[in-house]
Amino acid sequence: MDLFFSDILYLILFSISLPIVILIIYSRKSSNPNLPPGTLGWPVIGETLEFALACQGGNPAKFVKDRMNKYSPQVFKTSLLEANMAAIGKQVSKILCFPPVFDETLVRDNFKPPTFLPQFLKPEALQHYIAVMDSMAGEHIKIYWSPRGEVKVFPMAKKYSFALAFRVFMSIADPRYVEMIYHPFQILTQGFLSVPIDIPGTAFNRALKASKFIHGELLEIIRKRKMELEQKGESAPRDLLSHMLSALHENGDAKSEMEISTQVICLLFATHHTTSSVITFILKYLAEFPDVYSKVLKEQMDIAKSKGPEGFLKWDDIQKMKYTWNVAQMKQ
Prior knowledge:
By secondary structure, this protein is mostly helical. Helices cover 62% and strands 4% of the residues.
């Protein structure tokens, strides 16, 4: 009898709550006609599940592409863990919202991505770093891959791409220092889509602590680079960080140190999973298709023989990798 009444109670609660949920969803979709096209998803969680599944599958860009195709290639609205946002497509001029782990570091609607970033990441600009990428890849494989009988590619690729980003973005090559930042950065990424409950022991709480630590370290790097630029001028490193410190807002004001620190963290987020995912899928593809692997290996060995044992890759060598580049493009 008690079981019968409990079933009746659940049925009543369900019948009452269902219209409320539908009403909330409807109001979220239609309350403001001036919002861009798109959907805010379910109450509280929004479209977090869809985004998390795309990330877990190693292709977070699919979440954006699907909505650009469905709603608009210019801008669409979405919601991730109660954070309503407008995602802007190819013409990126402003990030309208941050995940909760960034709330304490920056006012959301005052953040703009660096305007010079597309120029900095062009092949013509990156070709100066090819020898660095080559030497770091060799060192990384020698230290982390070669001694192991079995390698889990994705974690190792993430470690490599993180160290490479530190070298390219900020000219930091000390592996011990990069390793010190890497662990809290992983905690931050794990809490990126966690439920925003700031209680000790939760993923969100750990992410906030990791964010505070990383910001502290980046602020020290930024202040040190400021002094180098003032004292050394043109002889100081001319990397992405130096460009950020030299860039001004549209009104002529200099960027704050916290704003630059947040921009660096966002760039680390953007490059971390995308680069490591591409590396992982390429190696998976080569393992599954031995004939493709043989052709890639032959092309690489031919270039290596022309370089000698101590020679690093140059831009001209990259241009010779026709088959390898085709394979890489297929897996992006």
